[in-house]
Automatic annotation (TrEMBL):
Keyword presence, Lipid metabolism: no
Gene source species: Tichowtungia aerotolerans
EC number(s) reported in the record: 6.1.1.14
Protein name, per record: Glycine--tRNA ligase
GO aspect biological process, one term: diadenosine tetraphosphate biosynthetic process
Its job: Catalyzes the attachment of glycine to tRNA(Gly).
Family according to the record: Belongs to the class-II aminoacyl-tRNA synthetase family.
Amino acid sequence: YHVSMDALASLCKRRGFIFQTSEIYGGINGFWDYGPLGVELKRNIKESWWKSVVQTRENVVGLDSSIIMHPRVWEASGHVGNFKDPMLDCRETKGRYRADQILVFKHKSNAATLMFAYPEDEEPPRKKVKKMGKQNPDEYEIVPLLDIPVENYDRLVGPDASEAGTLTEPRAFNLMFKTHVGPVEENAAVAWLRPETAQGIFAQFGNVHAVSRQKIPFGIAQIGKAFRNEINPRNYTFRSREFEQMELEYFIKPGTDAEQHEYWVSERLKWYERVGLPEGRMHRDIHEGDALAHYASACTDIMYDFPFGTQELEGIAARGNFDLTQHQNTSGKGLEYYDEETKERYLPHVVEPSAGVDRIALALLCEAYRVEWIPKDGGEVLTADPDAKRAPEGYEARTVLRFAPSIAPYKVAVFPLLKNKEELVGKAREVFEQLNERWNCFYDQAGAIGRRYRRQDEIGTPLGVTIDFDTLEDDTVTVRDRDTMEQVRMPISELEAYVAEKVRF
Ligand code: ATP
């Protein structure tokens, strides 16, 4: 990997992609703000998804449902009863953990020795085992905490504690944020912040179907905020308590589930490649047996190799007609579809691709980040050694975000060669204003031209246009490519077509 999460977080803060929320008050765990560049990146991700899933398909329509819905929606969906994670506390440090994400270092033969617990995405505490137990770590095995009988908890040492017996028993914790609607805080007024956007689609299935006059198969898509009171938010923005989802419910004829599921998995993988996540870093995690919900016939998670491990970006599930059945039964309103060709009436099945905007933004940032060593006198560009403090003799370091041009926050940066030459500045403003009508562009006249290029490299702007003295003579400009750093000369009249081709979705 080219990036440590610390280096990435530091760039994101310095350049205005991501800030800790309400930072001036010390922040609040699991919540993030997107700065001027982050908001553009996220908009481009959402726009690309919307285009690929909704606008270029005649049989998919959009919806924007409210975040707070009737509480019975969440009874019907099963979220009030079942949307729970097992949680446990550390008695000593008061730290809180998801029990299903804790692993335990356990002695293979001596059942009476201490057992060390640690979160699954951290390094196993071999050193700690060696020191405290004075044992050879190879005599230990690693098992999930939930496999340890509760009566043995008194021998467990928690992740940040030194005392045995520091972990409480796991208990179920509902992840939905609870609030009240109206001026009285009584039980009858309890409402929930949605933990997914999908249920808004199912609850409006009847209305949307009636107005859109679609025939099966057809889809309803939605992008919006979702809220989960995650027990431990971690890995930067990867697991947050407020995040954005992009969800499609694709309603299909029962019996076509397997083929439609496979179709959407491959469609979505193509999209990931287009926005800049290479096939080699993407994986399918196919759920089988116990890992599959009882109503689902298939579920594939789309995974990406993050620097902190291979993790889910999107889940694609064939959910049968579980959700529509639940809402029909709970609301008493008929949600059946009438098939005019076969004269049959049925509850459609559904395939649900459900993706997280924030996780995709993070993956794109991880993927795009590079530090390169540029030879001062020409020659081959080197990928920097991440552990080196500075570039070797004769080289200069540059940080570059190699975003796919279609999702880069700014598409073009425009520079007058010198800021104190009125004709250059006037011409540069003219070019900037022309391009900025169509794309998000950046104008910069401060400092040496090389430094201005570097500033744009660091935020991933794919093209730089420089207006120099020749421009005033012949109306041509220099266009610099972020990745190759090569420059071409072209007439201003060809600029728009050139940029359009480069930044196409
Ligand atoms: P995980 O197992 O990682 O908690 P999940 O399987 O519960 O995720 P889904 O319920 O399938 O997630 O939600 C669909 C998508 O929404 C996920 O693939 C992810 O991109 C996004 N998402 C879910 N929870 C979070 C979160 N806490 N922070 C950011 N994105 C999330």
